[in-house]
Amino acid sequence: EAGVAQSPRYKIIEKRQSVxxxxxxxxxxxxxxxxxxxxxxxxxxxxxFQNNGVVDDSQLPKDRFSAERLKGVDSTLKIQPxxxxxxxxxxxxxxxxxxxxGYTFGSGxxxxxx
Amino acid sequence: GQQLNQSPQSMxxxxxxDVSMNCTSSSIFNTWLWYKQDxxxxxxxxxxxxxxxxxTSNGRLTAQFGITRKDSFLNISASIPSDVGIYFCxxxxxxxxxxKLVFGKGTKLTVNP
Lengths: 114, 113
What we know:
The complex is a heterodimer.
Chain A (H helix, E strand, L loop, with lengths): L4 E3 L2 E4 L5 E6 L6 E7 L6 E7 L2 E4 L8 E4 L6 E5 L8 E8 L8 E2 L3 E5 L1
Parallel strand pairs in A: 2-11
Antiparallel strand pairs in A: 1-3, 3-8, 4-5, 4-9, 5-6, 7-8, 9-10, 9-11
Chain B lengths: L4 E3 L2 E5 L4 E6 L6 E7 L6 E6 L5 E4 L2 E5 L5 E6 L8 E8 L9 E2 L3 E6 L1
Parallel strand pairs in B: 2-11
Antiparallel strand pairs in B: 1-3, 3-8, 4-5, 4-9, 6-7, 7-8, 9-10, 9-11
């Protein structure tokens, strides 16, 4: 079974620029999550999708972050404009609703804002 | 947002030693999970706990769900070099796989051969 695919693996941008991350979840997983992991911290949920609907985006900085999951499969997370404090690893995860062992993380995108 | 209190922050041990780490919360969680994260990778699930008092093993790893539902413990026996990494506890309010995870800050484990 293929894992959660994310791209790019690394991105370096200047502050105030825009950036987008892409995630392809495991086939059949209805739930998709974007987590932000700042260096030295545990991951923090930004947004959760159930199919193509948003379940929880309470911790998403909506003035600069946006995410979509068209057709309930792939997802894109965008930051516009980026700030220095957005430097982090952005992890995508997906789950099959009733099984925690199916809750799988991708390898993440490491964003550096300079 | 809430994070779990995980300790110790880091550990330096000799190969063959046993390791213990724990995680506490001010509020109740109905599911506790332990993950390991290697550099440049996402967290990988080690053990999931669903019932207060539950004790579950996965090879040399043993985890327990605290009776109060506000804490959990992870033990690694007879450590080996490949145990190196960052271990995270995570809690879920419910017991399904479709809920968000609240993470601790991690315990960084270093194993000296």
